[in-house]
Amino acid sequence: MTDVDALTALTEGDRRRARDVAAAGTSLLARALTTYLDHEDVGSVYDQPAAFAAFISGGGNVGLYAAVEGALADQYRSLNPLRLADIGCGDGRVIRNALAAGGHLPDSLTLIEPSAALLAQAVRDLTPTRAYAGTVQSFLSEVDSDFDLVESTFAMHTIPHHERTEVLTRLRDRTDRLVIVDFDVPDVEHGSPAHLRFLAETYERGLSEYTEDRDLVAGGFLMPVLVGQLAPGARRVTWEQPAAAWRAQAQKAGYRTVSVATLHDYWSSPAFLLVAE
To answer: What is the pLDDT at residue 48?
Structure first.
């Protein structure tokens, strides 16, 4: 039995078999999955800020986020946005560091983040004009504001595909430029053998990048994300897609120009920068 067998059992809704197969394995993923399935809890992965903070502060995220912050700083220098919004700002570290690197201070800063705990951290380190604790879908329905630049880093993939097209369309009339950073995942069918092999290989690689915080990162973030996208009835939190699909989706939403560039290699998939106007 392999890690792929355990993930296959998850997709079939057989959590007991998935746990037993994982328990017979020796990989980092097998151990993390066994522990999680023994003690899994309900709720969002983002309800555990310590796990999320440990995840983005270690491993390959160090170089990844440095590249992201540099790319956003370049956007600030080229556009000089006075009205700036960040969708899914998390704890605010990315936009805080990007603003500092770009030497930019917008007249109006809007932070949008579903996790109240993460948003509270962001507000402590920044002075936003508006801090919205909710989804971007709710924000667009409740708040009537326009922006020079709307940015989102590794957050738009938490929106289901059909809802995301609508969000992109509504943002088109609210901003001069939309910048998205996300992962260029392989073009494979969700839940297929190729997809499960990809997940097994990449999650093993990701877990290997953590040492002291591995259990926290695994149980509080990585395993909930993994199980959530595979197990029937689980709370799914990610709907990733290849960069080409992101480009096509932005074009479908009516943006005149859409550019996509590879930004940084990563244990999961290369990160890309999408700029739509």
So the answer is: 67
DSSP assignment letter at 158 = G
pLDDT at 43 over 70: no
pLDDT tens digits along 198-241: 999 999 999 999 999 999 999 999 999 999 899 898 878 889 99
Pair of tokens at residue 44: 């969002």
256 exposure class (CB count in 10 Å sphere: 0-12, 13-18, 19+): exposed
Alpha-carbon distance of 195 to 142, in angstroms, equals 37
Q: How many CB atoms lie within 10 A of CB 195?
A: 18
- Name the DSSP letter for residue 222: I
Kindly report, residue by residue over 134-188, the tens digit of the pLDDT. 999 999 999 999 999 999 999 999 999 999 999 999 999 999 999 999 999 999 9
Q: For the chain, how many residues are written?
A: 277
Picking from 59, 131, 51, the residue whose alpha carbon sits closest to that of residue 95 is: 131
Outline where DSSP puts E strands in 95-236.
108-112, 130-132, 147-153, 175-183
Cα 201 from chain centroid (whole Å): 19
If DSSP codes are grouped into helix, strand and coil, which group holds residue 115?
A: coil
What's the pTM value of the predicted model, to 2 decimals? 0.89
